[in-house]
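During the second year of the project, the team shifted from modelling isolated chains to modelling whole assemblies. The rationale, set out in the original proposal, was that interfaces cannot be judged from single-chain predictions alone. As a representative example for this report, we include one of the complexes processed in the last quarter. Its constituent sequences, exactly as entered into the pipeline, are reproduced here:
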Amino acid sequence: MRKTFAVAMAACLGFFPPAASAQEAPDALVKSVTLEVVDLIAKDKEIKAGSRAKLIEVIEAKVLPHFNFGAMTALAMGQNWGKASPEQKKRLTAEFKTLLVRTYASALAAYSEQKFDFRPLRAKPTDTDVTVNVRVLQPGAQPVTLDYSMEKTAAGWKVYDVMVGGVSLVANYRTEFANTVRASGVDGLIRDLEKKNRSLQEKK
Amino acid sequence: MKRVLAVILLALASGCATTNGDERDPLEGFNRGVYRFNEEFDEHLAKPVATAYRKALHPEIRSRVSNFFGNIHDIFIGVNNILQGKLGDGVNDWTRFAFNSTFGLLGLHDVASEWGYEKHNEDFGQTFGRWRVGPGPYLILPFLGSSTLRDGLGTVVDYTVAPLGEVRPIALRNSLHGLNLVNTRAELLDASRLLEEAALDKYVFQRDAYLQRRRSLIYDGRPPREKLE
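Output from the structure prediction step:
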């Protein structure tokens, strides 16, 4: 009997980790990832020397796993998403992801030790769609707000939009995407995105 | 002057004929014309000057310059907060001005931020927005860039009341204006590079970002959520 109890205890402690660590709360996740990345950048000599490739490497390893690029691409496409074939969707998502990562790297490269203010999450524990608010503080200017829209999935919380200073990245691509699809179809948009990514690649 | 007006009207008329249908931007043809002009001006004059300015001056000094102009601006940020019925915020802005003008040595140091008096972002365009004036058509202003009919009128009021215009002698006033403009453009160098990289069509990307940003500012960063679907 005592042995059974001990086994049960061990099972509880060892095999069923506490719920909190099984799925980190969205605001805690944003905070830990942000601080980790900022710390890595501050310490990395190559990045400090201006290596964009190394910076992208860090983003791909640390930040990307927490983003749902399929959802982001679908939102940016709006109604046109339904017109795309599975193959087109795959390519759109891949190209859009590359573009966003590059943009993100550019924004991070401009970062210079500003302080963060991680706002407490205003959501119910049962919510599956929340916004995590972070503010970047800089003396002499209004703080810049970063709002992460996040959705709960089986694989943890995933970001599906970022608002910088009230500007939604996903919403901002909507008109561009719609105009291009109207003018030259989904394939035209894929071509434009490829061209854009290639030109950014060459610049570096 | 009359000739300039005629040219603008002509551009406006031809612009109207070539729009391709964004309801927020009925003057797109005209706007794109002004946009091209602004881009040329920026590429050949504003950006090189701002880049040289940034290279020449230590970040610390540039930040003093920003603080100095920002401090004067705080008076009107306060006025706008009061006009929008946000008395507490207005008092915060004027307290900032009082502390920074004295302890902060004529505004060169933003001591108020360190003491917990946060800087706000307000202008007359936002005040009109709070008073439920719609944005009207999107407008690109020569030299100044993205605006709307409402925000453009707001900018006219902003400039009219700005105390910098009262500075004499004229040469000093013009130098201050020049410094303010160059410093502002220098602050935007990172942002404009980002825009360059992120956008497929810079005109559209910038327009949509501007309209989103202004909407957010009018609601002080908490606009009613528009659910994307």
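Chain B touches chain A at residues 22, 63, 66-67, 70, 110, 113-114, 118-121, 190, 193-194, 197-201, 204-205, 208-209, 212-213, 215-217, 221, 223, 226, 228-229 (CB under 8 Å). Strands of chain B lie at 138-141, 145-148.
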